[in-house]
Amino acid sequence: MTPVNVVTRAPHDQVLDRLRAAHLEQGRVGPTDDRGWTFAEVDTELVEPGSGSTVLGDRSPESVADVLARVDALVAAPYVAQLDAASDELPDGVSALVAVRGDDGGRAVVVTWAPVDAEPGSGDPAYGAARLDAAPDEVLAAVDSLVGLRVQAGEAADRLRHLDHPDVLLDALVAVAHLPATDATSPDAVAHLVRADAAFVRAAVRRAESAWVRETDGRTVVWAADRPPSPVLGVEDPDADDEFAAAFGAELRARRQVEQGLRPGEGALTVERTGATVSWTVSTPGRTWAHGGWDEEWSELQVDGSDAAYDALVEVFGESRDPARLRALLAERRWEGDPVAELAYLLGLPSALVEAVSDPERFRHGAERVRPLGPDAPLSATERAALAARAPRRPAAATVRDVVLLALGLALFALGAAIFATDGGLVGSDRPPAWSFPVWAAGGLLALVTWGALGSARAERRRFLADA
């Protein structure tokens, strides 16, 4: 995948329709600001339906002009585009670039960053490091003429000159230019409803730095994690950034462990609310996430369809009180009233879920605060047992099969090695038979593959139980 970040002066729906018409499958489009600018993060490989090949070809771009041709195929001018080698296919010698094409669709103004090698003899790799290739003044003037700069041109230029890694280029542009929203706003409330054994969920949630849990019955738990204030755009506060990242990462680890431990017939529903915007995802064993939402400012290019969302929800929570109304709810992007309350009613979900996303303070008053894991707060024996019961475990038949194949591989490998060592004498020959090398090679490969499969299963289980 080769995503590109681009700001274009076109309405959200128009940008979305154009990208979907190009048969793009990955990416997202943000809200249009009051000046008409919209941000999109998309894959630049255009795929023809059913062809399996890209309209723009499978070859890597040989020049900056090739890169701009891909951008031009996605959005109309005027635009500001940003790409970096960490996620994009760029020509050799280019680590990142910013391109601006004006209203007239004429020549694009471009500035590039080149990779930087480690200092000779330093012993320190310069992986991903980059340096500005030329003065950014012309590009910044073009950006200023389109979207405007937040800071003086000299300060903006200094910011780009001192940028030493391309993966922070978009952040630098956001800091110096009046771009539309380049990421979804941090949600006001996030709640997770899990249909699974409550003891297991409670133990997994302790991975979060601070979480509140309400058990509605032995098989249904609603939990929410405390999050510190999200970083403020344009304000450099490393301590606040680190605190938010640590809390967010811990919540994701808790959520991931819950999802990894789900069994058939169980599932996890996550609901996020940001103002009037509501989004949700549901995870079930063996199925990719289904997702949906209402009044969402951001749109994903990939469309799962309301039928997939309906099937995923009823698989976990059972048939709806009113299947037709549930299908209508999932198909709509706008809904009069509270869509979370409607979803909860139609699926018979506990009111604690509605409370957790509409009134988090009230939810916490009726919930139990779970103590996070730490040196002075390890898992109890009961919690460790609950997690161990849910840890990934290969079927016994698969393990027996791999052990047998491992033994067979080692035997063939040893036979081949012994034939070579005795120069064929082991099988009564004065030289190793022609078949001895294939036997030796096949045995070694079989042993290696099956040992890897057994080791991978053990490693996955160890990772799941890392803190248990």
Short note summarizing the structure:
The chain has 468 residues and is an alpha+beta fold. Helices cover 40% and strands 19% of the residues. The chain is built from 15 helices and 15 strands.
In words, what does this structure look like?
The chain is of the alpha+beta class. It has three domains: 3-176, no CATH class; 189-390, no CATH class; 396-464. The chain contains 15 helices and 15 strands. It has helices spanning 12-21, 64-74, 137-146, 153-161, 169-176, 198-205, 238-260, 306-317, 323-331, 339-347, 351-358, 360-365, 381-390, 396-421, 436-464, and strands at 3-9, 27-29, 37-43, 79-84, 96-101, 109-115, 130-132, 189-195, 211-217, 220-225, 267-274, 277-284, 287-294, 299-300, 368-370. The strands form two sheets. The chain has an eight-stranded antiparallel β-sheet, with helices on both faces. Helix 6 packs antiparallel against helix 7 (238-260), helix 8 (306-317) packs across helix 9 and helix 14 (396-421) runs antiparallel to helix 15 (436-464). The chain is globular, with a radius of gyration of 28 Å.
